[in-house]
Design a protein that fits this description.
This protein is mainly alpha-helical and 37 residues long. The protein contains 2 helices and no strands. It has helices at residues 11-20, 22-32.
Length: 37
């Protein structure tokens, strides 16, 4: 898992991540402090 200084993901990107892997997405949201929806 490569974590570079990525731009803020758009809502669509978050949905894609959520559709791909819910757990990693939730972890990412916890780290970035972003919420889906």
């Amino acid at each position: 898992m490569t974590v570079t200084r990525w731009r803020r993901p758009s809502h669509g990107d978050l949905q894609k991540l959520a559709a791909t892997n819910a757990i990693p997405t939730m972890v990412g949201i916890t780290i970035t402090g972003h919420r889906v929806g």
